[in-house]
Amino acid sequence: SFEGDISTANYYLQQMKEHNIDPATYTISIYIKACANSKEFNLAENELNTFMSHSKPNKIILNNMLRCCSNCDKEEALDIYFNKLKHLGLVPDSFTFSIILEYYFKKNDKNKCRAYINQIKALNIKPDRVLIKTINKIGNKFKRQ
Questions:
Q1: Do the beta carbons of residue 75 and residue 107 sit within 8 Å?
Q2: Nearest 5 degrees, angle CA 5-CA 26-CA 120?
Q3: Residue from 72, 64, 54, 66 nearest 26 by CA
Q4: CA distance 86 to 80
Q5: Cα(15)–Cα(11) distance, rounded to whole angstroms?
Q6: DSSP class of residue 70?
Q7: CA torsion 44→49→51→54, rounded to 10°?
Q8: Helix, strand, or coil here: 117?
Q9: What is the percent of the chain where pLDDT is above 70?
């Protein structure tokens, strides 16, 4: 796996392309995760756009893209990719909302946190322990303000 090393990820992706091998969903997902870990937003977005020109991304790919947006402090892109996920008919899950809420928690944006928590309720998402911990952290922080 090359998910933590962007130079290795770029090498293997280029090798695939040179041999006319279209990267599969799993490959793109790991590549975007490597970009997120390396804070390489433009690389991730370019590769995702190429992939989307011929394939529909799954929730794992888009969650990794959301993580990349978060790690690279790309707020507008975070909202765009969240909406794209929903537009493609994919239902956000606890993992999706954990990424987004952590981002807005770090940005100290109470209104965005509240809006996304309301979406969790509206979509009747059953939070996992990570999401519960995130929501509790948000509640404790903003309760003190």
A1: yes
A2: 100
A3: 64
A4: 10
A5: 6
A6: H
A7: 180
A8: helix
A9: 96
CB 123 within 8 A of CB 82: no
Using CA atoms, how far apart are residues 140 and 61, in angstroms rounded to an integer?
31
> Residue type for 140, please?
N
Angle of helix 129-143 relative to helix 110-122, nearest 10 degrees, comes to 140
Per-residue pLDDT of the chain (145 residues; tens, 9 = 90+): 455 578 888 788 888 888 888 778 888 999 999 999 999 999 999 999 999 999 999 999 999 999 999 999 999 999 999 999 999 999 999 999 999 999 999 999 999 999 999 999 999 999 999 999 999 988 888 876 6
> In terms of pTM, does the model score above 0.85?
yes
Task: Write the CB contacts of 54 (distance below 8 Å, at least 6 apart in sequence).
Answer: 22
